[in-house]
Amino acid sequence: MDGARLILNARYFHIAQTGEKATKYAFVAEAAAGLVNYIATRESVIYNYDEHYKEVSATEAQREAINQFLEVSPDLELSREFKAYDEDRSAANASALISRAAQYVYGMTAEGDVKPSAPATRAQRERIQEFVNKVPAIRQTPEYSDYKASPTRENASEVLSHALEVGLANSADPETLEIMLNYIAERPGVVHNEGKVHGLFTVNGAADLAAEKEAIAAHTGNIYSMVFSLRREDADRLGYDRQDAWSQLFAIKADKIAQALRVPTSKLHWVAAVHNTKHHPHAHFIAYSTAQNPAYIFPKTPSNS
C-alpha cells in the first residue's frame, strides 16, 4: 500500500465457559455471535453478490431502492458508483451503488465529495457522551478523534455507528450493548435487511452467516479479531473501497497471518467484512484455528500496530 497509512487494531478472545466471568478476553457466546452478525450487516457494509450479477440486469427491487435514495439525495448522481451504474445497469453495479448510497444523505459537491454537514444535534451529542461514559475506549477511535476536531452531524453519526463494535470489543455490560443495538437498529438511514443480505465473506466467497455465527459461538480456542483501517483518500486511491480488493489481500497474506498467529495455514479459518465508511473505510477480519491443539496466545494483545 504505497504511501498509505494502514492502521491495524488486533486482539484475541475466547468464549467464556460455564461460571467464567465475561471480560475483554472472554466473550459470552451471544456477544461473539452478535459481533459477527453486526460486522456482516451494519449499514456501511459492502454486500456480497454472485459473479453472475455482473452479467444480469439490476432487479426491480434494486431499481426501486436506487430511486428511493435518489429522491432523498439527488446529488447521489454525482457519485462514482452512480456513474458506473448509469453506464452499465447491471445487478453488480446496482449492488455497489446501494451499498454506498446511505453515505450521501448529506449531499455532494460538484466534485463528488460529501458536503460538510451541519453541527451535531443535541440528541447526537448526548448519546455520544452517554456511550463514552459507559465505554471509555470509544475515545481512542479515529471516528471519535474526527468528531472532536469537527463535531458535525456526519462525524457524530460515524461515532455512533462504530460504538457497538467498540462496546463488544471491550466487554461492555449487557444493558449498554442492548442500548447500542437498539439505537443502531432504529437510527435514521439504517438498512433493514432482515438477515437476508450481508457482507461476510471467506476465502471461498460469500459466507454462510448463520453457520459462521454458530461456529464462532461454539469454538473452544482463541479467536482473533482484527480491524484494518485506511483514510478515505487512501482507500479510494488504492482501490480498497471494494470488497474484492480486501478479499484478494487476505487471500495473498493468509500464510503470513497464519504464521503470526502460529496456526497452520491449512487450519486457519477466517471470515471478513468491509465497512465502506465515509472517513475510515475498514475491514474486519476474524480468524481461528480449526486444529485440535490450542492456538498461540499473545503475551499482550497487539493493538494499533
Word description of this protein:
A hairpin with a 6-residue loop joins β6 (268-275) and β7 (282-289). The protein has 305 residues and is an alpha+beta fold. The protein has twelve helices and seven strands. Helices cover 43% and strands 12% of the residues. Mean pLDDT is 79; it is low at 188-196 and 295-305. Strands 2-1-5-7-6 form a five-stranded mixed beta sheet. Strands 3-4 form a two-stranded antiparallel sheet. α2 packs parallel to α4 (91-101), α5 runs parallel beside α7 (153-169) and α6 runs antiparallel to α7. The longest helix has 17 residues, at 153-169.
Features:
alpha+beta
Task: Find the structural class using helix and strand composition.
Answer: alpha+beta
The strands making up the biggest β-sheet line up spatially as 2-1-5-7-6
Number of strands: 7
Q: How would you state the average pLDDT, rounded?
A: 79
**Content of β-strand:** 5-15%
The end-to-end span amounts to 15 Å
What fraction, in percent, of the residue positions are helical? 40-55%
How large, in whole angstroms, is the Cα Rg? 19 Å
Query: Ranges with pLDDT <50 over ≥5 residues?
Result: 188-196, 295-305
Task: Give the SSE string.
Answer: EEHHHHHHHHEEHEHHHEE
What overall form do the CA principal axes indicate? globular
